[in-house]
UniProtKB/TrEMBL annotation:
PROSITE patterns per UniProt: ZF_RING_1, ZF_RING_2
Protein name per the record: RING-type domain-containing protein
InterPro entries: Znf_C3HC4_RING-type (IPR018957), Znf_RING (IPR001841), Znf_RING/FYVE/PHD (IPR013083), Znf_RING_CS (IPR017907)
Keyword Methyltransferase found: no
Organism of provenance: Didymodactylos carnosus
All residue ranges annotated as the RING-type domain in the record: 61-107
Keyword Nucleus on entry: no
Pfam hit, one: zf-C3HC4
Length: 173
């Protein structure tokens, strides 16, 4: 995807709009100045305003399998890492299909939440469209298979004990 210099992206660390031409350099400056961002997510204490689901790190993209050392790579909460190119393609494909975003690995069912989308290194207009799309849909809990709004799912998943703890109705028992 070719980006013109006038387009801006939201920095996931300082929430500033940055010209796309300076984006990689700007993100890298955060990594250089904050030692907590260079530990590949191994510290238990993270910078509070930085989502651990999308911390900077280097390694292999789980989708295209390219080694990313000089570029940026993102770690999703499902522990799969993706390069910016694959993330951008995922966002564009999701918007074209009008589908909520899920992990790029076929066998993984992790659905990106609002906080994940806000931290993606994509153009602001794509971010707004994806957030609008997500707010219209409900997310399924992988333990009990019930659907919840994006605002409710995190709290529910923390206390959900799965389908085994559900009481079946008269028809199901």
């Amino acid at each position: 995807m070719e980006l013109s210099p006038s387009l801006k992206k939201l920095c996931p660390f300082c929430d500033k709009q940055v010209d796309t031409i300076n984006y990689i350099e700007h993100i890298s400056s955060h990594q250089d100045t904050d030692p907590q961002l260079t530990n590949n997510g191994t510290d238990t204490e993270k910078k509070e305003d930085c989502e651990p689901s999308l911390m900077l790190q280097t390694g292999e993209c789980s989708k295209c399998l390219k080694q990313i050392s000089s570029d940026l790579i993102r770690l999703f909460p499902c522990n799969h890492s993706f390069c910016i190119k694959c993330i951008s393609r995922m966002a564009q494909d999701g918007l074209k299909a009008q589908k909520k975003l899920t992990c790029l690995i076929d066998t993984c069912s992790y659905q990106l939440k609002k906080r994940d989308i806000k931290r993606l290194p994509i153009e602001q207009r794509y971010c707004v469209q994806l957030l609008r799309l997500l707010s219209e849909e409900r997310i399924q809990c992988q333990k009990c298979l019930f659907y919840f709004s994006d605002e409710q799912i995190d709290e529910h998943e923390e206390i959900c004990s799965g389908r085994d703890s559900l009481i079946p109705c008269e028809k199901c028992s």
